[in-house]
Design brief:
The protein has a single domain, classed as Na+/H+ antiporter like fold, CATH 1.20.1530. The protein is built from eleven helices and no strands. The mean pLDDT is 82. It is found in: Membrane. Pfam families: Mem_trans.
């Protein structure tokens, strides 16, 4: 599903967007808020691999599986353009930042214990490559490049793309439900709730504050605030698994964050509708 439906949706959505229509200021507000939370997590918990993984849990949103169908339904094509601008950069910025932080922490731990040294430039390059060579940013960038040609997608191609894209939202939400049903929460409920509250509430509130400082508002900032309120993405668990850090806690946190989002996302959407409506 992920390798077929999401590229069709993402390419088609961006194939009619011109570069001059993109607004990067709201995206900057999102990343500034995420950066503050990530840095704050390192400051509070110390500069180590555990803090870096928890910092990612506090900031990495489920933009594709939940964000795309939600924003498409609530805010239409214009909102989708704003969201996909963020999606095209999200994994690259967040995964690279978190990878560099973890690897620096690992290198520091190894240096203290007399272990092997890591080549940071190679690690950064691998993080950037893995974030770009991925089924999410590639169709977004390809669609954006196609739009700059001024061409239109022939109907014989556009219709199947549209049907595939329309199937993505419902199936993505079903997959989220299946994932939640398989997760055990109980032993880590307290810690998971703390991480989920930071992700689901503190992140969007910081985006609101930074957007206000930057003089932003309207639909673009609304979409960024809602994106920040989305629950943790699955990449957080994969990241924790890769570095073997707090895997059970992160699994529980993804589940709690997703369940909590049923309330918090609705509350945030109502708040921004009142604030910017």
């Amino acid at each position: 599903m992920f390798l077929l439906l999401s590229p069709a949706l993402l390419f088609r959505a961006m194939s009619q967007v011109h570069v001059e229509q993109l607004n990067l200021k709201p995206v900057a507000a999102y990343f500034l808020a995420a950066g503050l939370i990530f840095a704050g997590t390192l400051l509070v918990r110390g500069f180590n691999r555990t803090a870096a993984v928890l910092g990612m849990a506090n900031t990495y949103s489920n933009l594709v599986m939940i964000g795309i169908p939600l924003v498409g339904l609530a805010y239409g094509p214009e909102g989708m353009v704003t969201l996909l601008t963020l999606v095209s950069l999200h994994a690259l910025v967040m995964l690279t930042t978190a990878t560099v932080a973890v690897e620096l922490a690992v290198a520091r731990e190894d240096a203290q214990s007399g272990g092997p040294q890591h080549h940071m430039a190679l690690l950064v390059w691998q993080a950037v490559r893995n974030a770009v060579v991925h089924p999410v940013p590639i169709p977004i960038l390809a669609g954006l490049l196609f739009a700059q040609t001024g061409w239109t997608i022939p109907a014989v191609v556009d219709t199947p793309l549209m049907l595939l894209g329309q199937a993505f939202g419902p199936l993505a939400l079903v997959m989220v439900g299946v994932t939640l049903a398989q997760n055990r929460i109980g032993p880590h409920l307290h810690g998971a709730m703390g991480l989920a509250l930071v992700k689901n509430l503190l992140h969007p509130l910081l985006v609101v504050a930074i957007g206000w400082l930057l003089g932003l508002g309207g639909l673009p900032l609304t979409v960024m605030v809602v994106a920040a309120s989305l629950p943790m993405g699955a990449n957080v668990f994969l990241f924790a698994q890769r570095y073997q850090v707090k895997q059970e806690l992160i699994t529980a946190s993804v589940a709690v964050s997703t369940l909590l989002a049923l309330i918090t996302v609705s509350a945030v959407m109502g708040f921004v509708a009142w604030l910017y409506g």
